Each structure stands twice: as structure tokens, then as C-alpha cells.
Amino acid sequence: MGAASTSPGSASSPGAYDLEELRRRADVVEIVSAHVALRKAGRRLTGLCPFHQERTPSFTLDPETGLWYCFGCQAGGDLFRFVEMIEKVTFAEAAALLARRLGVQPRRPAEAARQRQRERLLALHEEAASFFECCLRAEAARPARDYLAKRGLSAQTIKDFRLGYAPPTWDALLKAMAKRGYSEEEIAGAGLAVAQEGRCWDRFRGRIIFPIWDASGRVIAFGGRAMQDDQQPKYLNSPETALFQKGRTLYAFDRARKAMGEAGRAIVVEGYLDAIACHDAGFGETVATMGTALTSEHVEMLRRRGVTRIVLALDADSAGTTAGTRAREPFDQWRLLVAVAELPQGFDPDALVRRSGADALRTLIDRATPMMQWEIARILGRAAGKDGLALADALREAVSALIRVPPGPERAYVKQWLRDHLLLIAEQAGGSVADRRALEGELLQALSIELRRMEGDAGRSRGKAIAQQAGSLLPTARRRAQASVLAAFVQQPQLAARYLSSLEPRDFEAEHESNVFAAIRRLVERGEPVTPAAMLAEIEPQARGLLAQLAVAPVSERTEEEVDRSVHRLLEERLLRQEATLAQRLQAAGSAEEEAAVLQELADCRRRRSELAGRRIVGEE
Fold first, then answer.
1. Residue 560 has pLDDT above 60, yes or no
2. Integer Cα distance of 289 and 284 in angstroms
3. What's the sign of the alpha-carbon dihedral 435, 441, 442, 447?
4. Where are the alpha helices (DSSP H) in 88-183?
5. What is the CATH T-level fold of the domain 476-612, as seen in this structure?
6. 191: alpha, beta or left? (left if phi > 0; alpha if psi -120 to 50)
7. pLDDT grade, residue 435 (50/70/90)?
8. Is 283 left (phi over 0), alpha (psi -120 to 50) or beta?
9. How far is it, in rounded angstroms, from Cα 384 to Cα 394?
10. For strand 369-370 and strand 337-340, is the pairing parallel, antiparallel, or unpaired?
């Protein structure tokens, strides 16, 4: 099952398909069995989890509900979540994948028409790719083949990456596509031709052609590389269309998807030939940007495919280093480990591999500098040889960058590296030994002052978040009670109807548990069946894994008795929290009347708790 691509307004948007129809028509056992060897265990099926290494089966599938959960890695969800994780695609892409496999059409006529138009555009691009490939084999394309051979590309590589050639004439592609039934308007709308003042001509002429694919390997655009030094621009890409947006597309992403997921790493370069050279050298996890810095959408694409580490193999020129700096923000957003492979001056990955071989590139990638150190070194490097004021400004900027790293081993490591780097700067400053020692002292003192100031500011802003996290850590017994109640409600809905009036979403302090409970209550209040499919439609996507866990969790034969006991515990916990709040209000009471009113509320609360607990007040001797 290949991945699907999404674009704004396409039929791959989340609401394009009837999700209930997809669930109804899909055979979840058949789909999961393609990736997991399932064995029957009671009314459920078990197997080795495909999402982590294990020897003892911990993956559980409930064929009746269509929900699955792994007790080893805690992954779980419904059929859509399984396809998302196994294919490393988004939810919308998973729905489109299943729709294509099951033959389900978009549910609204406008979306169906848009999907047909999209498929025609894709077919046009495929025809164009075949045309360019055919042109590269022609006698007139010998200079193009010679150029590719000079760049070290084998015939097999040219075939694998479907490289082609655009003839230098003005209308070669236009004529070829017209014979295949496409109008000039369609060809120009796809970005393959330019229409201006009543005339139309091929966009790509006299260039080597690189097809650009979506996540499923379908051609959505082209890049054209000049063969002559005086031919400008050097690289010419398709314009942005309904199929292609540079900020959301990475060259060779479809080929790198599996390798990235297996390695947990992506190597990012800046050009078609760089990406091809890396793939040829054995780095199958390589992707390339196309005339733009990495965007947050690019980083999200990589993260969704299981990437936790990114190596930027950027050109050594200023454009490459600037691209790395601009990419900093999305890396921070997703907390990815990022390093920079610093290439020799005047080299890109393609040139390095051709000149020194794959091992040279592998060495640079293995020794890649963590991005924070690389960034700080560049900041301080700009002040090298300048006066003390420039160095002080650079140090302040370097510490500001360092503070973005959360407190912990990484920040401690970079902080020590920064101290060592400052000592190296002082040592290289020249002058007498006394001058160098004085500079060392000044730099270290300035570093200490800046760290204290900025860490203090950062610590204060982080305090609220820490307090919120501490408040969400629930005692084990309470969490057990909440989980057992929800598991019983999910698996035996009649119990949910019986106890719903007593409970509230706030009795489930974990966000996803509260979300599942609220969904069950809405279904019961509307008189609708409490089924897994109905619950999936009600809960947030992030809570699907919890719902799957609850659906396959072992439930005791004495379920009703245990639920009754757990519900009583949750109600007692709620009353205890109310008492704590009332006690605070009592201390802050500003008048005798207010104090009397709070005391009455407190007495009522304790009476209810005493009755609930059978005259035994939890927490008191």
C-alpha cells in the first residue's frame, strides 16, 4: 500500500471521504495481517508489534471493534492510525490510501470533480515524464548524456531517477502532449508551458529534466538543469500548482521514506544531483530542498515518517549556511536532534562523492556538529579579530541561543563546550601570556553573568509549566481507578449508562481520559449506541490510542463490583478536592457571615463523603 499525497482542496483532505464507509468496507484483519502474523487469543488476535523490536507478542487486535493496542510500546488506535504508522503518512493520506484500495469515491460531487481533475493533472505529468525520458535516449540528446556521464551518473541511476531531456525547440512538449489529448490551457495550467499574449511555448527547453514526485512516487513537477554556463537560471523548477508547492515537497522523499523510518534519520541536501549522489553512495535516507530553506511543513513531513535526527549536508558557501540558520525555528518546535555536516569549501555532496568517494561523505556525516554548537561557533566566528564590544555582543547572542536548549545534559554539555571555545578564542588572540589570561577571565566572567541573567528569566517563565506538569501526576491508585472505570464503560456500555449521572469529565484528570468519558456521556445522552466507531467520531484524534488501549484491556469477571468500587473512589476523590478548596476559602474568609457559609458547605461535603464511604472518611484515622 503506497502513500498518498495531500494538497489544499484535494480529495485527500480529512473530510473528503465517508470515514464510516471506509471502516465498514475495510477488513481490518486482512490489512493488519499484511504486516503482522496474527494468532487467535480468545476473541482477540495477537502478534509481534510492527512498530518496535520484540520477541514476545504484545500487539493485540480486536476484530469486532477494529481497535488495536501494543502493550509494549503503548502505540494504539483504529485502522486509520495503523495505516498512518505503518505507511508513515498523515491521517488524510491514510484515508485516501484506504479509499483508493477499496474503490471509495469522495462523498461530495465537487470533491469528486476536483479529484478527477487532479488525476488528469497527474496523468499529464506522467506522460510528460515519459516524453522527457524518451528524448534523452535520442541521438540529439548525446550532449546531455555526456554531461550526466561526466557527473558520474550511471545508466542505471539515470533510469532509476527517470532523468530526461527537454529539446531546445519551443514547442516539442506542447506538440507531444496535444497528440495525447491535452489542451494548451491544461499544459500551461500544469506549469509545463508558458502562456502569454496569445502565445504558448514550452517552459523547459534545452535542459536536463529531473522529475519531482509526491510521497507515493507520482510525478507532480519537474526541475530543469542548464547544460551551458551562460544558460540562466541554472536550475528552473515548475511553478507552484495544485499538485506542487516547494514548501511542502522534498525531492526524493518517496524513495527515502522507508530508509528514513528504519534509520530514524534524514540527511538534507540542497539539490537534485546532491540527493542522487547520496542515494548512489548508500545514503537512502537523503532528501533535498528545492530553492528554499527547510520549512515547518518539511520538518513535520520528516517527523511523521519517524525521523528523530536530521543531518544538514549543506554547501559550504554562504547560501548553504544561511539556509541552516533559517531552518532553526522548526527544529526547535519539534525538538529534533539536528547536526550539520560541514563540507569543505567549494564542495557540495555530489562533488565530494565524485572527488573523494562515499567514505569521505560518511565520515563528515558521522562527525556532524550538533546544530547548537555549529550556530554558536558561527556567532562567535563573526566577532573574530574585532574589538571587545563586538565580542561581548556575540557572546550575548550565543548565550541567548544556548538558553533555547531545555535544562539538562544537552545544555550542560553545550555550556561546557562554550567555555572551552572561549578559552580557545583567548588563546588565539595573541599578545603576552598575561594579556591572554586577562582576556580569559573577562570572557568567562561575562559568560557567567549572561548565563545567570538569561537562565533566571527562562527559569521564571518555565515555572508555570513545571507546576502544571506536577499537578498532572496522579497517584497510581487513582489512575488505576480511572482507567478501570473507562475500560468497563467502553467494553460494557450498559455500565456507562448506569453510572454516568454520578460522574463528571473532571473526575478523569488526564486530558485524554476526560475526552473519552465526555464522548461516552454525549452518546448516552443522545440515546445513541456506545460503539467504538461512534466513540471514534466523538473523541479527539490524540485520544484514539487510549480508546484502543481501553478496548483491549483485560476486564475482570467481577467487572460490575469493581466498577462500583472504583466509581465510589472517584467520587470520594472529588469530594476531597472540594474540601481542600473550601478549607482555603475558609482561611481567606473576610467576614463572620462568609465564614459561616463556608463552614456549612464544608460540613455538607464531609457528610456526603461519609455517606458515600459507609461512614468511613477516606484519609482520616
1. yes
2. 16
3. positive
4. 91-102, 109-136, 142-150, 155-160, 172-179
5. DNAb Helicase; Chain A (1.10.860)
6. left
7. low
8. beta
9. 10
10. antiparallel
Model confidence at 164: pLDDT above 80 = yes
- 180-236 pLDDT, tens digit per residue, is 999 999 999 999 999 998 899 999 999 999 999 998 889 999 999 998 878 899 899
Model pLDDT, residue 327: 57
pLDDT at residue number 15: 58
Residue 103 zone, left/alpha/beta (φ > 0; ψ -120 to 50; rest): left
For residues 486-509, one letter each, b for 16 or more C-beta atoms within 10 angstroms of the residue's C-beta and e for the rest, the string is: bbbbbbbbebbbbbbeebeeebbb
pLDDT at 457 over 70: no
Contact 263, 310 (CB under 8 A): no
CA-CA distance, 260 to 305, in Å (whole number)?
Answer: 7
pLDDT at 530: 83
The highest-confidence range among 247-261, 286-300, 303-317, 508-522, by mean pLDDT, is 247-261
Alpha helices in 137-263 (DSSP H): 142-150, 155-160, 172-179, 184-189, 253-263
Going by C-alpha positions, the residue among 126, 99, 540 that lies closest to residue 89 is: 99
Strand pairing report for 265-269 and 309-312: parallel
Q: The domain at 109-244 falls in which architecture?
A: Alpha-Beta Complex (3.90)
Domain 248-367 falls in which CATH fold?
A: Dna Topoisomerase Vi A Subunit; Chain: A, domain 2 (3.40.1360)
223 contacts 235 by C-beta, under 8 angstroms: yes
214: burial class by Cβ within 10 Å (0-12, 13-18, 19+)? Answer: buried
pLDDT tens digits, one per residue of 99-115: 888 888 877 777 777 77
What is the domain class of 19-102 according to CATH? alpha beta
φ and ψ of 536, to 5 deg: -60, -35
Enter the pTM of the model: 0.64
User: CA-to-CA distance for 579 and 567, rounded, in angstroms?
Assistant: 18
Res. 281 pLDDT band, cuts 50 70 90: very high
Q: Which grid cell is 432?
A: 603576552
Cell of 78: 483504529
Radius of gyration of the chain (CA): 31
What is the C-alpha separation between 69 and 49, in angstroms, rounded? 9
What is the phi/psi pair of residue 311, to 5°? -110, 120
Cα distances (angstroms) measured from residue 378 to each of 166, 310, 318, 321, 375: 42, 19, 12, 9, 5
Q: How confident is the model at residue 284 (pLDDT cuts 50, 70, 90)?
A: very high
Average pLDDT over all residues of the chain = 82
Domain ranges of the chain: 19-102, 109-244, 248-367, 376-471, 476-612
